[in-house]
Golgi apparatus membrane protein TVP23 homolog
Amino acid sequence: PQALVDDTEDVSLDFGNEEELAFRKAKIRHPLATFFHLFFRVSAILTYVCCDWFSRSFVGCFVTVLVLLSLDFWSVKNVTGRLMVGLRWWNQIDEDGKSHWIFEARKVSPNNIAATEAEARIFWLGLIICPMIWIVFFFSTLFSLKLKWLALVIAGISLQAANLYGYILCKMGGESDLSKATASFLPQAVFQTACSGDFQKPGLEGLEIHQR
């Protein structure tokens, strides 16, 4: 009888890599941080749009939106970016009055995943879309001549654009020279106030730090 030749190959099944890939795509490891990444900025937008329905006090609405914007700026800059995408930035002024950008990025290793795809997608979508909404508010306020809201809208654009700009530079590793051209357009007071003191203390383990 003719011998049967077994030409099949043993294939090792690496379920660990498949599980890790599925984990990175779907898992949200920091649900609380993910919630507050969107909560403050969405609440500020909804409060601005609906404040006339709930209150006739301009000062009350102005202060409420400004507080929400400030909470959003601090939480995104110091907490959610560090947890959701492993990035952190700050801008400090030296003794000579020069502005320096400092960036932190968590080193990625098999045992230390910087971010899942779901968290990263939520982080960047929230970071990009909300400033665009405030830009729309700026033009609508300007064309409708509701100039009393203009200062609040500009504050919203400045605070959220500052976070977006900082994280874009941080994502690129601080290698872009755009900072010199763009920093002058962002209110210096925002950086000196919001980026000073405790905000400048590193809070990540295993960091790659870049300074310009």
About this structure: Residues 178 and 204 are 25 Å apart (CA to CA). Residues 58-84 form the longest helix (27 residues). The beta strands are 87-93, 99-106, 207-211.
